[in-house]
Amino acid sequence: MRKTEPTSPAAAINSLIRQIREHDVRYYVDAEPTIADRAYDALVKQLEALETAHPELIRIDSPTQRVSGAATKLFPPAEHAVPMLSLANTYSRDEVLDFVRRVTELLGHAPKEGYACELKFDGVAMSLTYEGGKLVRGATRGDGTMGDDVTPNVRTIRSLPLSVHAKSDAQDFEVRGEVFMPVEAFRKMNEAREARGEAAFANPRNTTAGTLKTLDVREVAERPLTFTAYHLRFHSAELEASKAYDTHLKRLAYLRELGFPVSKYTKQAMTPDDVMDFAMHWQETRDALPFEIDGAVIKVNRLDEQSQLGAVAKSPRWAIAYKFEARQARTKLNAITMQVGRMGTVTPVAELEPVQLTGITIRRATLHNADEIERKDIRVGDTVIIERGGEVIPKVVGVEQSLRPKSAKPFKYPTVCPVCNSELVKPEGEVNWYCENPDCAAQVEARITHFASRGAMDIAGLGEQSVAQFIEAGLLKSIADIYSLPDHRDELLGLDRMGEKKCDNLLAAIEASKSQKPARLLYGIGIRHVGTNVAKLLVDAFGTIDAIAEASQEAIDDVPSIGPEIASSVFAFFRNPQSQEVLGRLRAAGLPFNVGKPRAKISASTSGHFFSGKTVVLTGTLSSMGRDEAKEKIEALGGKVAGSVSKKTDYVIAGAEAGSKLTKAAALDVAIMEEAEFLSHLNEPA
């Protein structure tokens, strides 16, 4: 009998990694496992034993390296080589047909390979970079040009290959897709949490987003994250132009060959009717899917045609999202309670008999305001219709009048704050009631929670429950107190459910927040009427928060798209003594009040140009250049480009297919400039 040669440790490790990866694909991607869990675990244990004995042979793409190292202290920024554009939304058959018509007109013919129709997964967009066939970076979308590097967390997703066996010239590429949680896995995770006495998560999408920003990679590994790929971009220009990969569907097929999870529900559609058949089929049958979707995505299939169509603003012209109608459920309204927001807004909330909707148990829904309750005649005891579309919080949209009990009476809106008993005020012309006591406990808690939220300063570990706990312990009274928490580490460690690791992660996140962009800080400090977009407009216009604080109300009002109401609110906030005290402490803590670029000044060389000092709005499609290029040229000549038309607009530059902005310009008697005139002015000397 021939003697078997002993296998080298390196060869054994390589073989085990290959086997485990094949079984991962069968289990997590194909949902067709071929071995029992015990046999799979035995392979992993063999690999772990070999790697322990030969640590020098551990590969970065080994399955044992999916979860390793200490908790992440900071997610570094990750710039996208190609922007991650967001899709324009459509809500009706007519809008889809209008998209098809525009595509055909711009191409001069119907798309030669039709359209690729996909499901719109309700998850978190992710960009994955592979170099030499190995996963080297996972980045969130962020603002489209800059996201967060969450590579350690992405590596825990078992449906993702840590390495692929691609051809030697095709090992450097980017894959984009959606990270999400299957509905059943989400349900089981919540059951396990409740069994441990922990609060259940609200919904799969928000839980996915929060998980990806969790600092402890081991905690991430315990969550049921999965992935589906919907985009491939080669780093090689030659491969990008190759006929082998010249359609979207061909690239998806290649991704599937490499072992990436790709939706099996994708379909080619050649006609508008085919497109709508796909969308309507899944709108009607989406509840049968094992994951949540909120629409269908329609893309021109050929990549050369995608390139020809290009993009407008932040959306491609070659793709749209058809958003499904919101789903509804009926349940009993047990009570109406009041919720006090960070700005003192007192909002009515429907307390419901628990009901299932889109795989989630719904117990509360918004009632918007007193006028809505009166208009819809909503009464306690009614059977109400609730709806959940893209919103995190469901809303009450109607009442089943025929089921109303005789005991139901019209709801009487309260006249005092439910938290601090201060008298409520309803400003003239507004629909909301307000508690004007800035020391109201509910407002303080909401302001701090907002400041620490992902869209603002992004302080992981400082959510609603932690904020409430810290306020009760006397550690937080305002947003400025957040930056004093590092001085109270011992007191933090004395609180329930606050171990050393959790405490250190929180303090690291607080320190990291000092590096956030000024626009996030401006949004986070909580000025009435200042959302994320307004904050960015103001910082772009003035350069720094300190400059905004020193600006006159008229100067703020002069910023394109900023109206008198916003200007008044911003101006008053920075002159409020209580605000100044908090801002002074934040400034002393090192937050970015004077970080940014100086406000742009008109140079001597452009001060006499036609566009110098003028505010213009671009609308429609210019044949000579893209909108971004036009914006750059106007700004280089001393002009301002606004996103919306107002009385302060000097000109609206109209290209082909100009829409509602043109209509508004006519209504406001704003001068309209055609492309030929625009080009003529661009070429004028200063």
Architecture overview:
The structure is a single chain. With about 675 residues, the chain is α+β, with helices and mostly antiparallel strands. It has six domains: about 10-65, Orthogonal Bundle (Helix Hairpins); about 90-325, DNA ligase/mRNA capping enzyme (D-amino Acid Aminotransferase, Chain A, domain 1, 2-Layer Sandwich); about 325-435, Nucleic acid-binding proteins (OB fold (Dihydrolipoamide Acetyltransferase, E2P)), CATH 2.40.50; about 440-515, 5' to 3' exonuclease, C-terminal subdomain (DNA polymerase, domain 1, Orthogonal Bundle); about 520-590, DNA polymerase, domain 1, CATH 1.10.150; about 615-680, Rossmann fold (3-Layer(aba) Sandwich). Helices cover about 35% and strands about 20% of the residues. The protein contains 25 helices and 24 strands. The strands form six sheets. Strands 14, 15, 16, 17, 18, 19 and 20 form a seven-stranded antiparallel β-sheet that branches. A hairpin with a 2-residue loop joins β4 (about 125-130) and β5. α13 (about 440-450) packs across α14 (about 465-470). The longest helix has 21 residues, at about 10-30. It is globular and about 80 Å long. The N and C termini lie far apart (about 95 Å). The relative contact order is 0.06. The model has no long low-confidence stretch (mean pLDDT about 85).
